[in-house]
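job 3f2a | input accepted
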Amino acid sequence: MVQPQTAVPDSSSSVLPKFEKSLEIVATLLLAFATVGSAWSAYQAKRWGGVQMFRMVAANGARSEAVRLSDKASQLTSIDVSMFLQYAAAVSSHQQQLSDFILQRFRPEMKVAVDAWLATHPLKNPDAPPSPFAMKEYSLSTLKQSDQMNQVALQKFERSQSRQRSRR
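job 3f2a | predicted structure (168 res):
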């Protein structure tokens, strides 16, 4: 018959439960910190994503305004060209009253350019510019505003992109 062995108390058995309990506490704390860190990261990502979105909306708004101003400048140029062609036709057909009428109705920016062009005596001077549109005096303020707004849009876009790159 086999004799039962008597259990010898093991000194490590009392240490093991303490070690396991400490290990569980450390693991729980690590998981808690990881959860809080993950939640904080998600919060920051959402927050910065919203900030970047607002910056992109501002850049797009500036770009839309630049396009609107550019379209307006194109429309004004078309009006100027049309009126100038009518003026040139009236001058060439010796309709003084009609040419004077049209000359008085040019837009102010166009009138400056036409007056400067006429001062070069284009009908007698072969070195005169071909039209008022080729003169530095012909300048559209809306086109300048469009260019400025394009610069603003570009700066806003670059700022939104640089902030995004710095977060990566």
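job 3f2a | The two ends are 74 Å apart (CA to CA).
job 3f2a | closed
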